[in-house]
């Protein structure tokens, strides 16, 4: 909380995204501070992933602004945003399946490897050194996320839970200041969720701010410092997990949808 | 019995992997190319082998674009034509030695790569293929209509290659020149493929959005692939002019682009040994089928279909498995045993 008064690392201001007549994101505003762990929650279709895609440059927002470190990144291409210190994972796991696990993680290091085409053609000492460093660092990140399994093998041959870890390792290898994770617990079993919680805490311990989209309320309540609740593209609550849990608008949004499984999850933590 | 069935293909694959990863594989290929004229050195055989080498160079060049980066280019002959015409014009009209045209051809290829790639690389897959097809035809038709390119009759009297006063224009000299140049071209393309840039190409091929999210400017990296392909094609064009001493627009039809692409796909996209093999296959097979006379291309076509049905991944597919150093492997195994909790990079 002490960082509250300082300048936010990431500031999303009045973000709008329309698809034709549909308002996917409708005036979303939130800030992420250094070493923050912020969760975006909300019913399906609330605009969480759309907001992520705007923030990381994949969608061009129809209104509002996004600033990272005080610089406006609203209209930049995704790679330029990544270069400024924001990396992400995808909801439906977007690994490079036909490439090795190590290569997947090396992708994150692309921007930091000081090596040009001439180095590669001539196999200069610099080429060898940078390649060795890349391998070492990729291995370290895979250690960090606790990957089990063959690192020299194809990414698609890993079990699902391990693939999730590789995706996080790849995002970490970008050297982000803000890490956006889109439903990292989806498809994980109970034990793996526990390991994810531990991993998120260790990532936070590295001084990386985390923005999380997650449906698993257990995880959200345990890991988040702040929770932002969206419904129909609009922000309906922003506060600590305890504040949000007691928020009447949140309870209404969740209780209004009886058939939604998140209701029960939400209720069970009341 | 079941174990036998299960292990023997696996063992064969392991052996195959070992051969494929062998660092001396390239040297073996080079030795074969160097020694081939000692088996047969008729003018005909040398010309077939020289053509095969040029084909190899074109195929590894196109492999950068199609195999590594996954951009379907149906107009690759355009770069080949640009190289051949630029060097041919400088050599015949301005009397430049062929070697002196090399830097100019490289510049022309880079410019052509940017001009053609710049607008088209914003498109994806099928659309890109159609636009490149169009550009391939534009280059050929332009050459057909300009006076400087000699119109439909093209350019003739392109001199052979002279190096430090040594005349390399004879069939033997040209063949060995091609061996050296093509060997370097194959090595260079393979090395690029294993570098930071080569990895970025593969990331784009696998998932363009994910690559972009990792900070890779996909537009620039795709353009780099295009420029790389253009340089390889352009340099092959110089050798082509030197070999035939005459070039004309029909040398650069869509059929060429299609055959080069076929070599890449047949050999195994993204695999250097595969693409080399594919190119030799495509260029030499019609010659070996001369017996079949008029049915030559018919048999050729049937064979291609058969190969593609039974070996869709190519003759020698790319190997994506990486052998780790012993140290890294041991560390990873330790990791498997105890879950690292305290390791912080």
Automatic annotation (TrEMBL), chain A:
- List all membrane-crossing ranges: none
Q: Which UniProt keywords apply?
A: ATP-binding, Nucleotide-binding, Transport
Give the record's GO biological process terms. D-alanine transmembrane transport; L-alanine transport; L-isoleucine import across plasma membrane; L-valine import across plasma membrane
SMART domains for the chain: AAA
GO cellular component terms listed in the entry, alphabetical order: plasma membrane
A Pfam entry, by short name: BCA_ABC_TP_C
Question: ABC transporter domain: which residues?
Answer: 10-257
Q: Which GO terms describe its molecular function?
A: ATP binding; ATP hydrolysis activity; L-isoleucine transmembrane transporter activity; L-phenylalanine transmembrane transporter activity; L-valine transmembrane transporter activity
Question: Which Gene3D superfamilies did the record assign?
Answer: P-loop containing nucleotide triphosphate hydrolases
Q: Does the keyword Signal apply?
A: no
The family database entries (InterPro entries) matched by this protein are listed as:
AAA+_ATPase, ABC_AA/LPS_Transport, ABC_transporter-like_ATP-bd, BCA_ABC_TP_C, P-loop_NTPase
Under the heading PANTHER family, the entry gives:
AMINO ACID ABC TRANSPORTER ATP-BINDING PROTEIN (PTHR45772:SF7), CONSERVED COMPONENT OF ABC TRANSPORTER FOR NATURAL AMINO ACIDS-RELATED (PTHR45772)
Task: Tell me what this protein is called.
Answer: Branched-chain amino acid transport system ATP-binding protein
Organism encoding this protein: Micromonospora avicenniae
- What broad taxonomic lineage does this protein's source fall under? Bacteria, Bacillati, Actinomycetota, Actinomycetes, Micromonosporales
Automatic annotation (TrEMBL), chain B:
Q: Where are the transmembrane segments?
A: 24-46, 52-82, 94-116, 173-192, 223-242, 254-285, 297-316
Q: Tell me the first and last residues of the signal peptide.
A: none
One cellular-component annotation, GO: plasma membrane
User: Which keywords annotate this record?
Assistant: Cell membrane, Membrane, Transmembrane, Transmembrane helix
**Topological relation to the membrane, as annotated:** Multi-pass membrane protein
Q: Where in the cell is it found?
A: Cell membrane
Q: Which GO terms describe its molecular function?
A: branched-chain amino acid transmembrane transporter activity
Q: What is this protein called?
A: Branched-chain amino acid transport system permease protein
Species: Micromonospora avicenniae
């Amino acid at each position: 909380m002490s960082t509250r008064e300082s300048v936010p690392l990431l500031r999303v201001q009045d973000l709008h995204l329309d698809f034709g007549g549909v308002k996917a994101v409708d005036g979303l505003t939130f800030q992420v501070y250094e070493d923050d762990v912020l969760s975006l929650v909300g019913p399906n279709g609330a605009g969480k992933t759309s907001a992520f895609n705007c923030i990381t440059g994949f969608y061009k927002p129809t209104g509002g602004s996004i600033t990272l470190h005080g610089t406006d990144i609203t209209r930049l291409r995704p790679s330029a945003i990544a270069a400024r210190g924001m990396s992400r994972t995808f909801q439906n796991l977007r690994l490079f399946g036909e490439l090795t696990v190590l290569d997947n993680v090396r992708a994150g290091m692309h921007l930091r490897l000081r090596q040009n085409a001439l180095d590669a053609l001539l196999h200069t000492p610099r080429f060898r050194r940078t390649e060795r460093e890349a391998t070492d660092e990729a291995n370290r990140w895979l250690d960090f996320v606790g990957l089990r399994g063959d690192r020299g093998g194809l990414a698609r041959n890993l079990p699902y839970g391990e693939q999730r870890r590789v995706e996080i390792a790849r995002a970490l290898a970008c050297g982000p200041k803000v890490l956006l994770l889109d439903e990292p617990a989806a498809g994980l079993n109970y034990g793996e969720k526990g390991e994810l919680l531990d991993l998120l805490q260790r990532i936070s311990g590295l001084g990386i701010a985390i923005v999380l989209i997650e449906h698993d309320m257990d995880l959200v309540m345990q890991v988040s410092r702040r929770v932002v609740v969206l419904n129909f593209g609009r922000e309906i609550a922003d506060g600590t997990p305890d504040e949000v849990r007691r928020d009447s608008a949140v309870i209404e949004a969740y209780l209004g949808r009886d058939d939604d499984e998140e209701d029960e999850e939400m209720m069970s933590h009341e | 019995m079941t174990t036998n069935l299960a292990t023997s293909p696996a063992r064969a694959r392991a052996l195959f992997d070992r051969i494929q990863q062998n660092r001396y594989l390239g040297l073996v290929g080079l030795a074969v190319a160097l020694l081939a004229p000692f088996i047969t050195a008729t003018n005909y055989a040398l010309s077939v082998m020289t053509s095969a080498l040029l084909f190899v160079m074109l195929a590894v060049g196109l492999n950068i674009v199609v195999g590594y980066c996954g951009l379907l280019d149906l107009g690759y002959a355009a770069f080949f034509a640009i190289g051949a015409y630029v060097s041919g014009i400088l050599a015949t009209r301005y009397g430049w030695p062929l070697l002196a045209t090399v830097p100019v051809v490289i510049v022309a290829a880079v410019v052509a790569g940017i001009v053609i790639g710049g607008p088209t690389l914003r498109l994806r897959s099928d659309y890109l293929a159609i636009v490149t097809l169009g550009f391939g035809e534009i280059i050929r038709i332009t050459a057909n209509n300009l006076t400087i390119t000699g119109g439909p009759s093209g350019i003739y009297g392109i001199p052979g290659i002279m190096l430090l006063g040594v005349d390399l224009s004879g069939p033997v000299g040209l063949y060995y020149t091609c061996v050296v140049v093509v060997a370097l071209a194959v090595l260079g393309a393979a090395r690029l493929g294993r570098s930071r840039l080569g990895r970025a190409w593969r990331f784009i091929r696998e998932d363009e959005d994910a690559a972009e999210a990792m900070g890779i400017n996909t537009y620039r990296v795709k353009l780099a692939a295009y420029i790389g392909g253009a340089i390889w094609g352009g340099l092959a064009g110089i050798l082509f002019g030197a070999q035939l001493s005459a070039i004309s627009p029909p040398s650069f039809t869509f059929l060429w682009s299609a055959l080069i692409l076929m070599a890449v796909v047949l050999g195994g996209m993204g695999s250097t040994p595969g693409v080399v093999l594919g190119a030799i296959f495509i260029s030499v097979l019609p010659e070996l089928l001369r017996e079949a006379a008029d049915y030559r291309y018919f048999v050729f076509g049937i064979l291609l279909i058969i190969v593609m049905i039974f070996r869709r991944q190519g003759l020698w597919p790319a190997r994506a498995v990486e052998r780790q150093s012993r140290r890294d492997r041991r560390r990873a195994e330790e990791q498997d045993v105890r879950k690292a909790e305290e390791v912080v990079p």
